[in-house]
Specification:
- The complex is a heterodimer.
- Chain A is built from 10 helices and 14 strands.
- Chain A is of the alpha/beta class.
- Chain A has 2 domains: about 220 residues, Rossmann fold (3-Layer(aba) Sandwich), CATH 3.40.50; about 70 residues, Alpha-Beta Plaits (2-Layer Sandwich).
- The radius of gyration of chain A is 22 Å and the shape is elongated.
- Chain B has one domain.
- The longest helix of chain B is centred in the middle third of the chain and has 33 residues.
- Chain B starts with a helix and ends with a helix.
- The chains are: A alpha/beta, B mainly alpha.
- The interface between A and B is medium-sized, with 29 and 24 residues.
Chain lengths: ~300, ~220
């Protein structure tokens, strides 16, 4: 069963002086795209770096494509394409030189594909890395990660720090490239709109913990904004379990539920709730609600 | 399998050499010119000058390599490749060995040229033994600096840089006063003894530093 999973985290923890990551259980199905979202400092990059063994967990197990991330580290890295948040490529050399250097380490490296990606992204192979803009460095990093045809692609904030136009272009190009393949992708971002466009699954992190983890459609189905009226304000105590957040104005209430289903409305009506209005939420709105403390 | 592993180590070493090629060339030429001037004007002696040249050249290479790696955060780039920490450290040590041998060879060529212009009776075997000793001592010291870099980071490594230079500068000036009999003691040791002790000590030290560097790199969190 674990072989069907591209990623499995079990009781993984990592303590820093001012921050702790604790992931009890996390799985990513092969062939899917997962968006890792959360506010800055939620632990998204740390989680990705732990997969690459760049940050070492204090305890727990991580399985990558059915292999132990530590015991079979080199095998795992051969199958994974990693795009770090800030490029981290040698600045003094050309894109072609970096490609040539990296090619020695992957059995599956495809030089023609690398050149095709550079061309697709409009990058000159003879330009030094330091002469590239932030967006182009990210494109180079993506080309390097894709050229060895990885089974799992880890993208750590690929659109972070880019202006909206460059971000849009990069995302479109990213979509074109990744949709051609049937690989698994873990994409972290604090820009929810980006995740909404590409992800099948969403994992929301807050203060180093997984708060929500489901497929995107289910999340959008379960989380709704509900407006209603109660005969008495004191009755709200009986409905708190239905809402992750609510506010009131007299007997008029507005809240967000994470338990929406066909059965919820009749149940609320049976319990005396009146004038119920349900409206959908965007993923961004759901994430904002979850980022705040629950009621 | 072994050939592939060695090729990967060489590629890592070549990467360090390639990234520093311009700086290395500039440094070698400048150091060569300054030392030539010191030899001709201050008459500091050709052999100490060669040793200073080898020391400055290799040490600057080590510092520059670690500086660029730290500046570009590129250690995580290498760590993300399917290559072991054993190979990463071996690659760095190999690059240092290549620079040390290169600097020594330049020193030998300079000595040869100096001999052609100013012939004197030199014991080439003894000179060679001194050269190997100096080279291995220098390599061991640079590998120690690399270990400090992996274990405690670039900033702390710079303290070692400052302390070493001050120690060598002031120590070099006072060693003759503190140990007046040292030249005679050194002259009394046979070239073969120098060679053997240097090789054995260097193997032990380099193995220890390589092992310690691998352990440090395995524990290092690249946040």
């Amino acid at each position: 069963m674990e072989m069907e999973k591209a990623l499995v985290f079990r009781n993984v923890s990592k303590k820093f002086p001012d921050f702790e990551v604790q992931i009890d259980s996390f799985e990513l199905v092969r062939g899917s795209i997962m968006g890792l979202v959360g506010p800055n400092g939620a632990g998204k990059s740390t989680m990705i770096k732990m997969i690459m063994n760049l940050v070492h967990p204090d305890s727990g197990n991580i399985s990558v494509l059915g292999r132990d991330y530590l015991k079979q580290e080199q095998q795992v890295k051969n199958l994974v394409g990693y795009v770090p948040e800030d490029g981290r490529i040698y600045e003094e050399v050309t894109a072609n030189w970096v490609g040539q250097f990296v090619s020695h380490y992957y059995k599956t490296w495809d030089h023609d594909y690398f050149q095709a990606l550079l061309q697709k992204f409009g990058l000159s192979g003879n330009k030094k890395v330091k002469q590239l803009s932030k967006g182009n460095k990210m494109k180079l990093s993506l080309s390097l990660a894709l050229a060895h045809k990885p089974e799992l692609l880890l993208l750590d904030e690929p659109t972070s720090g880019l202006d909206p136009v460059v971000r849009y272009d990069l995302l479109q190009e990213l979509l074109e490239v990744i949709q051609d393949e049937s690989r698994t992708i873990l994409l972290s971002s604090h820009i929810i709109g980006d995740i909404e466009k590409v992800a099948d699954y969403v994992c929301f992190l807050r203060q180093g913990k997984v708060v929500l983890y489901d497929d995107k459609e289910s999340i959008l189905e379960k989380y709704k904004r509900v407006q209603f009226k109660l005969a008495d304000t004191g009755l709200i105590n009986g409905f708190k379990d239905y809402f992750v957040q609510y506010n009131s104005e007299g007997i008029h209430f507005q809240g967000v539920t994470g338990k929406y289903s066909k059965e919820l409305l009749p149940e609320l009506q049976r319990r005396g709730v009146e004038d119920i209005k349900v409206s959908p939420l965007t993923l961004e709105e759901i994430m904002i609600v979850l980022s705040r403390e629950a009621v | 399998m072994c050939k592939i592993a060695l090729t990967l180590v060489w590629q890592l070493a070549w990467k360090d050499l390639y990234l520093q090629k311009k700086k290395l060339l500039w440094l070698m030429v400048t150091a060569g010119l300054i030392i030539s001037i010191l030899v001709s004007v201050n008459n500091i002696g050709f052999l100490p000058a060669i040793l200073i040249f080898v020391f400055i050249g290799t040490y600057s290479f080590t510092i520059q390599t670690c500086f660029y790696e730290d500046k570009n955060n590129s250690l995580s780039f290498v760590r993300a490749l399917p290559v072991s920490t054993v190979q990463i450290v071996a690659g760095r040590f190999l690059a240092l060995a290549v620079v040390t041998v290169g600097a020594l060879l330049i020193g030998c060529l300079a000595l040869l040229a100096f001999q052609l212009i100013n012939p004197s009776s030199l014991n080439w075997f003894r000179m060679g033994a001194y050269g190997v000793f100096a080279g291995l001592a220098n390599l061991s010291f640079n590998c120690l600096v690399v270990f400090i870099y992996y274990r405690w980071g670039y900033t702390r490594m710079q303290y070692v840089y400052a302390v070493t230079f001050m120690t060598l500068f002031f120590g070099g000036m006072t060693v003759g006063t503190l140990l007046p009999g040292l030249p005679e003691v050194i002259a009394g040791i046979s070239p073969l003894q120098i060679l053997a002790s240097a090789v054995i000590a260097a193997i032990a030290v380099l193995f220890f530093l390589w092992n310690a560097s691998v352990k440090a790199l395995n524990k290092l969190d690249l946040t």
